[in-house]
Amino acid sequence: MKPETASPYGHFDDATREYVITRPDTPLPWLNYLGQDEFFGLCTNTAGGYSFWKDAKLRRLTRYRYNNVPYDLGGRYFYVNDGGEVWNPGWKPVKAKGVKYECRHGLGYTRIVGERDGLEVETLFFVPPGENLEVWKVTVRNKSAQRKTPKLFSYQEFCFFEALNDMTNYQRTYSIGEVEVEGSAIYHKTEFRERRNHYTLFACTRPIAGFDTSRDAFVGIHEGLHEAKVPFAGQATNSVAFGWNPIGSHQINLDLAPGAEESFAFVLAYVEQGEAPKFDAPFVMNKSVGRAIVEKYSAPGAVDAALANLKAYWDALLGNFQVDCPNEHAQRMANTWNQYQCMATFNMSRSASMYETGIGRGMGFRDSNQDLLGFVHMIPSRARERILDIAATQLSDGTCYHQYQPLTKKGNADIGGDFYDDHLWLVLSTCAYIKESGDTSILQAPCAYADKAYENVVTDTLLDHLETSIAYTMKKRGPNGLPLIGHADWNDCLNLNCFSTEPNESFQTAGDVRDSKAESVMIAGLFLYAAREMAGLYEHLDRNTDAARMHGHYAEMLETVERVSWDGAWYTRAYAADGSVVGSHTNAEGKIFIESQGWCVLGGAGANNGRARQAMESVHQHLYTKNGVVLQQPAYSAYDLRLGEVTSYPPGVKENAGIFSHNNTWIHLAWCQLGEGDRALEYYLSICPSAKQDQIDTYRGEPYVYAQMIAGKDAPCFGEAKNNWLTGTAAWTFVVVSQGLLGIKPDYAGLRVAPCIPKDWPGFTVTRRFRGDTYAITVRNPDGVSKGVKALRLNGTEIDPTKPIPVVGDGSTHSVDVVLG
Ligand code: BGC
Ligand code: NOJ
User: Residues 162-171: what's their mean pLDDT?
Assistant: First the structure.
């Protein structure tokens, strides 16, 4: 296999859109997500992980112990007892010798197959679209020449729904666990007798030979999962948990002739039973909703039909954007994995991954607004709903709750607000939504401010929120005329008002921002971008006075940026609370930062005076490495309480000169804006996971999804990825590849085509669904240029290449021919 496609641990199967892992001992657990709507599961390549409904903190259904030893232990386990020999198809937890293993992480499903001694056990985990449950399909095949009578034991641990309580409050939790067993179904109903109206169902679609619901009975008190008592004994105990730790385990006895196989399934469901009636008898829960679920999935063909739905679901979603281009990595990521990761970040924000425990952070204000940019082309209606949810956590003074819980949609008071970039991202997500969908009605959608949510009649609209956001930045400016920073801007670790000397406080919340003078150049650049977006929106709405007002704000901020933020060869980063400059050649460390170069250039600063190009050349000279662009240089070597958390990290990691993939994407877009297609692709590939397979033992992360951070050149582990999956990199990279490099940009009046590609690309094709039509776009590059469209034809007719392709709107496919030059 070509090195572009394979690593020593596995390979891409582009045809099936799977990453195939061929040995279980990957450099780190490699994760996949199950679920697309409201029920989600984390599933690693050894079947580790857990499931939850909507909210990993408040509705966690199965239990997982983070930072375990090994890292990943506990999950959707099957123990096979084949003539006394015990093993797992996913290798863990027994890790028996001689198990042939393959894991295929696909779109919304994970298939793990183990084979030992002629017995093959295939397990498949997925969440059917629109359902609040997970299906575990199992197929057992006797590939040997002898009859086999294996016993199979399912195993997973129930969580008491509220995850923090579940893992901290044992004086209570050890006494409350309750289950019921009915036929092949195990019902976890802790707290159902009091305030809950929901339970967890774990059922098998075939008759069982026994069950266990007590962890102590199944595993033992002094045993580990790798030596659990029941599977080694080969006999379930039919234990009914009373307190302690309820689990779900079914025993299946099979009798397979040589060549025979048997398939069956398990369902793990979140069930809201309702109140009518809650109980059939004292202590006997009304299980009618759960029973109906078991019945549905026990019907022949039901599981395979659900799987077919899932495949059709993803085919349709990805069909909205497909490219055929000369670079294998860009093509693979854009067509499949990048879009797939965008769905995960849209659903999870920064809540639940191998690095986020699902407890600390819910939906981030700035994070979720940015996540929308890579998702909106897939399901615009969900983006619409999300925008309104996020906006409703803004306060009437313009500040925003920094995070909110997905279940309650209420702002999180612990972290609060006062991150003075947050509100501006709402402008970007709203404009992206309208450009994609054409739906300007969202602007008039009623949307209360979080501090006015008690009002019965909501008179504020989303457009009011956008105006409030712009006005807030104009108002909140410091001595140099730049936006104040608050607790931090996009860089959560640039805490210019924190001055923390107390190790037990959070850098993000400590410090008084009220009378601060600390200013952010990055917010100024972001503001330029947002003000221009607002002006464009008003022009689209024919509200020219409002557009002119926005252009006025833009001009004022641009003048300020150029006057106070140019350092000679790049834009500075900030002014600290004491008025000193941050990110200047006059600083000993942290002389040049990435974020202000990216945002000033994207905001249009330096466009007419050569500074944009010079700033980008400085990025190339001081910050670029083969593994991506480091956040700043030189890295901070000592804690500086004026600057906060950014100086707390060892040099080369996270915000202290790590390669923070998210902000790299702004540089990619800036290169595209400058017409530098070769640089743009080179930079794009420097952080692209698919391109890391030949250095995977250094990189360590999943080669199919972006990492939040890759260790920078100052770190001993230069090139090592961390915090994979939940990062704004996913959305922004999709913007880079689809709108920057390939140049297919949604605009109010239609799709714009303005590619910026490497000069040696002969061309590419894109299929793009847009407002109900399909555009089959062919781009040719006969003159070997990076940028510039010299001819554009729609369905064979020449049209103006400087304008968007008009929306045809007849639901059919249109050919678009583009000639660069
Ligand atoms: C991390 C940031 C993150 C912040 C807020 C910091 O420790 O370095 O990347 O945004 O925490 O949770
Ligand atoms: C991760 C956070 O989720 C995001 O909000 C922040 O912008 C980056 N870290 C940079 O600090």
Answer: 97
What are the structural domain ranges in the chain?
A: 35-315, 747-820
Atom of ligand 2 nearest to the CA of 350: 3
C-beta of 491 in contact with ligand 2 (< 6 A): yes
Whole-structure pTM value: 0.97
Q: Which CATH number fits domain 747-820: 2.30.40.10, 3.10.310.50, 2.60.420.10, 3.40.50.1820?
A: 2.60.420.10
Residue ID of nearest Cα to ligand 1 atom 9:
492
Residues 6+ apart with CB under 8 A from 168: none
723 lines ligand 1 (CB under 6 A): no
* Tens-digit pLDDT profile for residues 250-304: 999 999 999 999 999 999 999 998 777 999 999 999 999 999 999 999 999 999 9
Which residues does 617 contact at the CB level (< 8 Å), separation at least 6?
A: none
| Model confidence band, residue 639 (pLDDT cutoffs 50, 70, 90) | very high
How many C-beta neighbours within 10 Å does residue 397 have?
13
Residue 727 beta carbon below 6 angstroms from any ligand 1 atom:
no
Question: Which 3 state secondary structure label does DSSP give 34?
Answer: strand
- Tens digits of residue pLDDT in 767-812: 999 999 999 999 999 999 999 999 999 999 999 999 999 999 999 9
**Ligand 1 centre and the CA of 492: distance in Å?**
6
Indicate the top mutation candidate among 492, 523, 709, 710 to test ligand 2's pocket, ranked by most ligand atoms within 8 A of CB.
492
For the chain, give me the number of helices (H) and strands (E)? 20, 43
From the alpha carbon of 655, which atom of ligand 2 is closest? 11
H or E segment to which residue 305 belongs: helix 302-318
CATH dotted code for 35-315: 2.70.98.40
